[in-house]
Amino acid sequence: MKYELDARRLLCPMPVIRTQNRVEELAPGDTLEVVCTDPGVVNDIPAWCRINGHRVLETREASGEITLLIEVGEA
User: Is 69 left (phi over 0), alpha (psi -120 to 50) or beta?
Assistant: First the structure.
């Protein structure tokens, strides 16, 4: 299933923490679209995903917003 997380106007490390908390509620294979305004997420969320076994499928930037599509990996 596909889920969304609004992390706009949050500064590091909150987008990563909110992403982590949401991913814990999801099943392997689910996708989570995270929308952020903190440019640090371009590095921080992919690094967190690599460490925790998740995959960034897509990263988009438009109008000051960064959207990352994450596939939840095995716990």
Answer: beta
